[in-house]
TrEMBL record:
It comes from Pelistega ratti. This is IS30 family transposase. GO terms for biological process: transposition. GO terms for molecular function: nucleic acid binding; transposase activity. One of its GO terms (cellular component) is cytosol.
Amino acid sequence: HDIDIFFADPGCPSQRGLNEHSNGLLRRHGLPKQTDFIGMTQPYLSSIAHKINMIPRKSLGYKTPYHVFLIYLKEALKKAMSKNV
């Protein structure tokens, strides 16, 4: 299989747009740039993930990642159940 791999140039964050956007979301929702993760609880980190997953995204038709996940999960369950009938 041929797979294209992109390597961003060092020091060029503009070449990694999605990564930089995701980092910005994390910073805005409670994880500043120099965050020390020692002592952070899983519930706290999960709450940050939940906040981010509840933000509507243009790329998802202004649905939240959580909502899109539920749509795919529902379809997968329907498909699995129909095979068992």
